[in-house]
Design brief:
The chain is of the alpha/beta class. The protein has two domains: 168 residues, HUPs (Rossmann fold, 3-Layer(aba) Sandwich); 154 residues, Alpha-Beta Complex (Argininosuccinate synthetase, chain A, domain 2). Helix content is 40%, strand content 22%. It is built from twelve helices and 15 strands. The strands form four sheets. The protein has a five-stranded parallel sheet with strand order 3-2-1-4-5, sandwiched between helices. Helix 2 links the parallel strand 2 and strand 3. Helix 11 packs antiparallel against helix 12. InterPro entries: Arginosuc_syn_C, Arginosuc_syn_N, Arginosuc_synth, AS_cat/multimer_dom_body, Rossmann-like_a/b/a_fold. Keywords: Amino-acid biosynthesis, Arginine biosynthesis, ATP-binding, Ligase, Nucleotide-binding. It is an enzyme of class 6 (ligase). This is argininosuccinate synthase.
Length: 390
């Protein structure tokens, strides 16, 4: 990875979190010309981002605000279709966001005259390695700078308390989920929660402060009926949202969050070979997964479902490890496209206090449904004329 060069313009992926704001302060102190790229990927209210833009411009830096919600929603659709999940079944929303950011922003940085891509992800973490892998593949001529591996940056900011003091002194507003003691990484597909307290395996998950969602016991007393429609292997509607992925992802998030369907508390294997606790909030994908699973059950024969599950496990690892663009992951997606690309149908769910229960479904399936009681109760019938099993 490259080193900061104060003679060229740096493009900084600015999330508004504590560490990336501290990187902005550090670059300013080095007199490095910096252009902040703030991507709206559905992580926060737009007023928060507008306030950050105003503060950074008042700080004296250039700022670009990008609406990448459509790109984020498209990748969220991929996460569902390919069931790209990691340990404990949690959705790879953070890894997916890194793919979106580098794919969409790195080319723009080049066009704007930036000669470095900088981020605020901590040294030794998964995200540092994700940027290190996606950057050279997508923008090989744009060195990726890792400030939190730079001895100068670590000397200037040895801990998060020092970061917070500097950010506050410059009047830069923090993302609502960030602070000295905790951080969240949010996007339209979901949120990861981190803190020293939550990393302790003895800490009950109920110490978490959800960013979007309610705990099941706080959810409405009455259940809500939700109908999810699939067309050609992808979500096409959630309770009247229409086919736009931003619209149906937003609708699914709202419903899942309101009714307490959102949580994964896991101990995950990390890219560097360690394990760490992770707590994830993905109400929309958790809700939609219930419907997609039922569609798969009714639409794939045994061999196809076994292959789908094996390919999905590989794609979960590929998204987690930032190998989504590599040939093996492309081939796995092509294979799943062949398996599920023609699947259409709808599933009705009853959502109530953390549970999403299937109420009914319709599906266009080439897999024959076998019945017994529909044939009199004394034999199995495939429903095909002249064929039955004793």
């Amino acid at each position: 990875m490259g080193q900061v060069n104060d003679n060229v313009r740096a493009g900084l992926l600015q999330s508004g979190g504590l560490s990336s704001l501290a990187v902005g302060v550090w670059l300013r102190e080095l007199h490095t010309e910096t252009r902040h790229y703030i991507a709206d990927i559905g992580q926060s209210d737009r007023t928060n981002m507008d306030a950050l833009v105003s503060a950074l411009r008042g700080f004296g830096d250039e700022v670009v605000l990008l609406d990448l919600r459509s790109s984020m929603a498209a990748v969220a659709s991929d996460l569902l279709k390919y069931r790209a999940r990691h340990d404990g079944g949690y959705w790879n929303t953070t890894g997916a966001a890194r793919l979106v950011l580098v794919s969409e922003v790195a080319p723009l940085m080049r066009a704007d005259g930036c000669r470095m891509l900088t981020h605020g992800c901590v040294g030794g973490g998964n995200d540092q390695r994700r940027f290190a892998r996606y950057g050279p593949r997508i923008a090989p001529e744009l060195p990726v700078i890792e400030p939190w591996t730079d001895p100068q940056a670590l000397e200037r900011f040895p801990d998060r308390e020092t970061m917070l003091k500097a950010v506050a002194e410059h009047g830069l507003p923090l993302d609502p989920g960030s602070g000295a003691e905790r951080s969240t990484d949010a996007n339209l597909a979901g949120i990861s929660h981190e803190s020293a307290e939550l990393e302790d395996l003895a800490t009950p998950v109920t110490r978490l402060q959800p960013r979007w969602s309610r705990w099941p016991e706080q959810a409405p007393a009455e259940p809500q009926t939700v109908t999810v429609t699939f067309r050609d292997g992808r979500v096409a509607d959630v309770n009247g949202s229409g086919p736009n992925p931003v619209a149906w992802m937003t609708r699914a998030n709202d419903i899942g969050a309101r009714h307490g369907v959102w949580l994964r508390d896991v101990v995950e294997r990390r890219i560097i070979g360690t394990v760490c606790r992770g707590i994830y909030e993905a109400p929309g994908l958790e809700l939609l997964e219930r419907a997609w699973t039922r569609i798969l059950q009714a639409s794939l024969d045994a061999a196809s479902r076994e292959l789908y599950d094996r390919l999905a496990a590989g794609l979960g690892a590929a998204m987690y490890e930032a190998r989504w663009l590599e040939p093996a992951a492309r081939a796995a997606r092509d294979a799943i496209d062949r398996l599920v690309g023609e699947i259409s149908g709808s599933v009705t769910l009853s959502v109530h206090r953390g549970i999403a229960r299937v109420e009914g479904m319709t599906v266009d399936s080439r897999v024959v449904q076998q019945t017994r009681f529909g044939s009199g109760g004394n034999r199995w019938s495939s429903g095909l004329e002249g064929e039955s099993d004793a």
